Amino acid sequence: MNYTHLTREERYQIYALKKAGHTQSEIATVIDRSVSTISRELSRNRGTRGYRPKQVHNKAVERKAINVRAIDDATWQFAQEKLMLQ
Fold this sequence. Notes:
Blueprint: H1 8-19, H2 24-31, H3 35-44, E1 46-47, E2 50-51, H4 53-67, H5 73-85
Antiparallel strand pairs: 1-2
Helix pairs in contact: 1-4, 2-3
């Protein structure tokens, strides 16, 4: 079972499989994800025009960029100094 974030390709697979009439359980099996992951993905990202993988993925990338923790200069300098000692 894969526990990382869904990829763009997986989102397009979910879209195609759902459009072809597959159940969430079948989709989960095909892309090797849990049924709950597929369920959450579809319920959280369903808009007025349905599930749209391109927009969903772009929003996920934006959220990830916002939540990235930056290393401050003092910490970076400390790490570089320790690496030089080795």
